[in-house]
């Protein structure tokens, strides 16, 4: 019988199937993807069971694993993945501690003409219609089933500096769609430009309001003058 004291609190392996889901991001863990399981007390039987997560999801958090001795199966995974886990444990947190950004790189994305109208844009929550150009984003280390789709214009607002010509799938787009996407890149406004346009619009509205007020005042004067003339004639 296995000694409960010998059970390590973490387990690492490559997913044997695509049936498990990540407890952190709730997305499926694709087969052969590196996953880390937090060992917890089972509710259906006497023993422990792993709560699986994408390895990358765990390593985006700080101080989840205190020592490599806590990880069962570490010696059985590929050397580069072993080093990745060891580096995380030694640093006590994610390898990159720079401020988070919403910008994406071309390697993390893909572009295509939507083959159906089933997908929903992650940014605006509206349906992406069939034949519309859509851009995907994929969290690092996750499979194709975890893709998030975006309207091209919604994505450009999120990541305006991306080089669309380097997106996987760009060469397969019809020329007309390529030109339309390039036009979107040029149309994405800066925040300063948007503010200036808003101020200009407000100024224009004020001018219109003042003009309408002047016309109204002029009409009041004309009416009063007509009434005065009528009184004198009476």
CATH A-level architecture of the largest domain: 2-Layer Sandwich
CATH homologous superfamily annotation of the largest domain: Zinc finger, PARP-type
Number of domains: 2
Task: Give me the strand/helix succession.
Answer: EEEHEHEEEHHH
Q: What's a quick, concise take on this entry?
A:
Helix content is 34%, strand content 15%. With 234 residues, it is an alpha+beta fold. β2 (34-41) and β3 form a beta hairpin.
Task: Provide an overview of this structure.
- The protein has 234 residues and is an alpha+beta fold.
- The chain folds into 2 domains: 7-91, Zinc finger, PARP-type (first zn-finger domain of poly(adp-ribose) polymerase-1, 2-Layer Sandwich); 106-187, first zn-finger domain of poly(adp-ribose) polymerase-1.
- Helix content is 34%, strand content 15%.
- It contains 5 helices and 7 strands.
- The protein has helices at residues 55-58, 79-91, 152-158, 175-187, 191-233; strands at residues 10-14, 34-41, 48-54, 71-72, 109-113, 133-137, 148-151.
- The strands form 2 sheets. A 4-stranded mixed beta sheet has the order 3-2-1-4. A 3-stranded antiparallel beta sheet has the order 5-6-7.
- A hairpin with a 6-residue loop joins strand 2 and strand 3 (48-54).
- It starts with 9 loop residues before the first strand and ends with a helix.
- Residues 96-102 and 190-195 have low confidence and may be disordered.
- Residues 186-234 are annotated as: Disordered.
- This is Poly [ADP-ribose] polymerase 1-like.
- Keywords: Metal-binding, Nucleus, Zinc, Zinc-finger.
- One of its GO terms (cellular component) is nucleus.
């Amino acid at each position: 019988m296995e000694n409960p004291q010998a059970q390590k609190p973490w387990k690492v392996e490559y997913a044997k199937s695509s049936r498990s889901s990540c407890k952190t991001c709730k997305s499926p863990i694709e087969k052969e993807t590196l996953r880390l399981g937090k060992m917890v007390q089972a509710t259906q039987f006497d023993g422990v069971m792993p709560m699986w997560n994408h390895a990358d999801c765990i390593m985006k958090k700080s101080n989840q694993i205190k020592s490599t001795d806590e990880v069962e199966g570490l010696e059985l995974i590929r050397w580069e993945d072993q080093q990745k886990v060891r580096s995380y444990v030694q640093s006590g947190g994610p390898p990159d501690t720079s401020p988070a950004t919403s910008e994406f790189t071309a390697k993390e994305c893909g572009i295509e003409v939507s083959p159906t109208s089933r997908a929903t844009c992650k940014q605006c929550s509206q349906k992406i219609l069939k034949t519309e150009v859509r851009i995907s984003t994929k969290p690092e280390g996750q499979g194709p089933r975890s893709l998030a789709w975006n309207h091209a214009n919604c994505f450009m607002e999120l990541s305006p500096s991306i080089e669309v010509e380097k997106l996987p799938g760009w060469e397969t787009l019809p020329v007309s769609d390529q030109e339309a996407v390039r036009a979107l890149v040029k149309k994405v406004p800066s925040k300063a430009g948007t503010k200036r346009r808003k101020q200009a619009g407000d100024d224009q509205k004020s001018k219109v309001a003042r003009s309408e007020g002047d016309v109204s005042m002029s009409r009041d004067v004309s009416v009063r003058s007509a009434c005065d003339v009528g009184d004198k004639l009476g």
